[in-house]
Amino acid sequence: MPPILATTEVDRPAEDVFAYATDPARFPEWQAGVVSGHMDGGGTGVGARCISVRRIGGAERASTSELVHVDPPRTWSVRGVDGPIRAAVDVTVESIGADRARVSIGVDFTGHGIGKLLVPLVVRRQAHKEMPTNLARLKERLEQSTS
Predict the structure, then answer these.
(1) What global pTM score does this model have?
(2) Is 97 inside any structural domain?
(3) Which of 2, 12, 21, 83: disulfide with 16, CB 3.0–4.6 Å?
(4) CATH number at residue 100
(5) What are phi and psi for residue 10, nearest 5 degrees?
């Protein structure tokens, strides 16, 4: 199956969009279910680890992803490295004017153990439903921000 892809245009410079969309500490502001996030050890280069905590089924669960590609302010990619459901996330930001950018986020999932059942039955459907809302929230947050 192809990755789930969502795209929106934001009235902010590409640099601002990229910085916000790829900052795990900001994920709870625009991603459904995310409770917290941070880069482990503060790293931001390839090989750095991103820790996200999500509320899943009434419990908070941490997951670790590794940064596999970064080219600011254009592209950022992480791959899950633990847990039964591992996400592959690709963020692309394209400047379409001095103060306007198009952001696309693609997500895909690999199941391990019980995750092999959950990915096709639950996870992909939920992500497909959440992605447009998440991108709308991202756009709203960026456009109302002045920093």
Answers:
(1) 0.94
(2) yes
(3) 12
(4) 3.30.530.20
(5) -125, 135
